[in-house]
Amino acid sequence: MKAPEAEGQTPAVKATQDRTERQRRLASIAQSIALPVAWVLVIITFGIVNPGTFLSGRNFSTIFGSQAVLVVVALGELLPLTAGDFDISVGFNLNLASVIVAVLNTEHGWPVGATILVALAAGAVIGIVNGALVVLFGIDSFVVTLGTGTLVSGVILVVSRSLIFSGISKSLTDAVIGKRFLGIPIGFYYGLVLCILLWYFFEYTPVGRRMLFVGRGRNVSRLSGISVERMRWGAFVASGVIAAFAGVLYAGNTGGADPSSGANFLLPAMAAAFLGATTIRPGRFNAWGTIVAVYFLVTGITGLQLLGAQSYIQQLFYGGALIVAVVLSQLSKRGEMLEEK
Question: How far apart, in whole angstroms, are the C-alpha atoms of residue 72 and residue 96?
Answer without folding.
Answer: 15
